[in-house]
């Protein structure tokens, strides 16, 4: 992680001196340990973990790429409070999803009108998901070629199209289970990176505190504009609605459990917080 290559420690301020080789080794060990835990069969094959993968993938993607920079630039030092508020609102949205999951399992057969409306809503939602996936893949394509000699719009779109085609082909030929496995690999890699990032950020925070170098930036967006921006950002933290549409694979009790009590709820704020502070650290060292 090049973000932390320039971290140094003033020895008198800390009882433990994290020189650069030590820090790199510690980060690598943390990443390796996180990966070992995630590929442990008892975890990797857990039905609770597998039911969590799809909604968690949605949250990690938006938090890791988009939300952190936007919050940091727009709200400055108040960004963590805004982030907590977004997570709380998202959890309230999740309560409606959980009620919906439970209600569908117990209610009598719907009328023809209701079935028609739900079919139309599903079509609209499917189109929205296609747009959303294409948007994030477009970001991925831009990032993917940004550090190469092929850093131009054509090759970025080429990479985006290739990945989009791979997802479509896998879904059409192998079904949801294959896509879920692909998501599991992707989520595990991101969680490994986040684990290492957390360690590096903890060290950096301790060093900055010891030097008295912490700073509190004023927000750049205030008033009504800040509220409308928060409303728009809600979509980036509520990914558990996907649990509503996994009924052919997981029962209602499992989907409600993973949406409310299990790994999703505890990880999403931490992932978003990690992404935010990781962006801020990169800014400080740029």
Count of strand segments: 0
Fraction in beta strands = under 5%
The whole-angstrom Rg is 21 Å
Tell me the major beta sheet: none
Helices and strands, in order, run as HHHHHHHHHH
Contiguous runs where pLDDT drops below 50 for at least 5 residues: 1-16, 281-286
SSE-based structural type: mainly alpha
As a percent range, the share of helical residues equals over 70%
Mean pLDDT across residues: 77
Describe the protein:
By secondary structure, this protein is an all-alpha fold. The chain has helices at 20-39, 41-44, 47-75, 79-106, 112-146, 153-174, 176-211, 223-233, 252-260, 263-285. Mean pLDDT is 77; it is low at 1-16 and 281-286.
What attributes characterize this protein structure?
mainly alpha, globular, 10 helices, single chain, 286 residues, disordered C terminus
Spell out the blueprint of helices and strands.
Elements: H1 20-39, H2 41-44, H3 47-75, H4 79-106, H5 112-146, H6 153-174, H7 176-211, H8 223-233, H9 252-260, H10 263-285
Helix pairs in contact: 1-7, 3-4, 3-7, 3-9, 3-10, 4-9, 4-10, 5-6, 6-7, 7-10
């Amino acid at each position: 992680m090049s973000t932390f290559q320039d971290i140094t420690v003033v020895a008198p301020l800390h009882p433990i001196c994290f020189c650069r080789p030590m820090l790199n080794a510690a980060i690598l060990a943390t990443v390796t340990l996180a990966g070992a835990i995630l590929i442990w069969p008892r975890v990797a094959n857990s039905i609770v973990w597998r039911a969590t993968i799809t909604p968690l993938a949605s949250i990690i993607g938006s938090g890791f790429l988009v939300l952190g920079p936007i919050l940091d630039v727009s709200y400055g030092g108040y960004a963590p409070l805004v982030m907590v508020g977004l997570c709380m609102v998202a959890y309230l949205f999740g309560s409606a999803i959980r009620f919906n999951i439970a209600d569908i399992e117990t209610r009598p057969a719907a009328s023809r009108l209701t079935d028609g409306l739900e079919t139309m809503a599903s079509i609209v939602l499917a189109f929205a998901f296609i747009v959303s996936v294409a948007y994030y893949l477009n970001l991925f394509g831009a990032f993917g070629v940004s550090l190469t000699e092929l850093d131009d719009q054509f090759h970025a779109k080429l990479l985006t199209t290739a990945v989009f085609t791979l997802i479509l082909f896998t879904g059409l030929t192998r079904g949801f289970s294959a896509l879920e496995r692909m998501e599991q690999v992707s989520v595990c890699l991101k969680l490994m990176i986040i684990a290492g990032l957390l360690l590096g950020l903890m060290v950096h925070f301790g060093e900055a505190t010891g030097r008295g170098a912490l700073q509190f930036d004023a927000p750049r967006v205030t008033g009504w504009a800040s509220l409308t921006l928060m409303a728009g950002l809600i979509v980036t933290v509520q990914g558990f609605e996907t649990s509503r549409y996994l009924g052919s694979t997981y029962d209602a009790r499992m989907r409600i459990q993973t949406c409310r009590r299990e790994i999703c709820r505890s990880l999403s704020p931490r992932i978003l917080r990690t992404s935010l502070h990781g962006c801020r650290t990169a800014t400080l060292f740029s």
